[in-house]
Amino acid sequence: MIELTDDHLKRYSRQIMISQIGQAGQQKLLQSKVLIIGSGGLGSPAAYYMAAAGVGEIGLVDYDQVDISNLQRQILHNTKRLGMLKVESAKQTLKDLNPDVRVNTYPIRVSKENAEEIISPYDIIVDAVDNYATRYLVNDICVRLKKPLVVAGVTNFGGLVMVVLPGQGPCYRCVLPEPPKPRYKNPSELGVIGTASGIIGTIEAMETIKLLLGVGENLAGRLLVFDGLGMYFQEIKVERKSTCPVCGNITANGT
Ligand SMILES: [Zn+2]
Question: 66 vs 28, 131, 175, 216, CA distance in Å?
Answer without folding.
Answer: 33, 18, 32, 36
